[in-house]
Amino acid sequence: MAGSGRGHDEGQRGTRRSGAGGQIGPNPTDRANPGVKKSLIVEADGGPLGIVIVGANVPDAPMLDATIEAIVLERPPVEEGYEQHLLLDKGYDNETGYGACLEHGYEPHIALKRDDRPPRPTQYPARRWVVERTLAWLAMCRGILVRWERTSENYLGQLKLACRLLWFRRYHRLPNLR
Questions:
Q1: Is residue 170 exposed (0-12), middle (13-18) or buried (19+ Cβ within 10 Å)?
Q2: Where are the domains of the chain?
Q3: What distance in Å separates the CA atoms of residue 29 and residue 99, rounded to the nearest whole number?
Q4: Can you name the CATH fold of 6-177?
Q5: How would you classify residue 110: left for phi > 0, otherwise alpha for psi between -120 and 50, otherwise beta?
Q6: Over the stretch 3-32, which tens digit does the pLDDT of each residue have?
Q7: Separation CA 13–CA 102 (nearest Å)
Q8: What is the pLDDT of residue 20?
Q9: Neighbours of 23 (CB within 10 A)
Q10: pTM for this structure?
Q11: Is residue 84 pLDDT above 50, yes or no?
């Protein structure tokens, strides 16, 4: 996540109960079993800034606006000549993805789908591993690996608590912040 150090990605995990509450949908990669998709936005080092859950069958681009709005920290004012960058993968290479980035004041850097469009000016290297690593850190919390809660609010609350735990651990690892 060059520039501002923010990225976006999704991760999927199923639900244990078929009668689980809202925000579930048929998982297209798991024989249509009910599942949940986590949409996460992180800073450059992998610290989670915001998280949203939806059904597993929802495309990525429509979730981008809700994920950016889920950031819990207030964004500092943008200085003149300094752009806020947002790196995204190919799932956001459409008008919805670009519109959400521009609407929130980010400079989008979206991986191109392989088609005949001309290349975009500045290409940033892919940093998907930062988001995948954060999702793996969240998966270490066994209570949220599989969704056992009936209500989506409880599951989202557990995910946010796990994100806070990640920040707590990061804070105590950095000696100059203590």
A1: middle
A2: 6-177
A3: 28
A4: Nucleotidyltransferase; domain 5 (3.30.420)
A5: beta
A6: 223 333 334 444 554 555 677 788 777 777
A7: 30
A8: 54
A9: 20
A10: 0.74
A11: yes
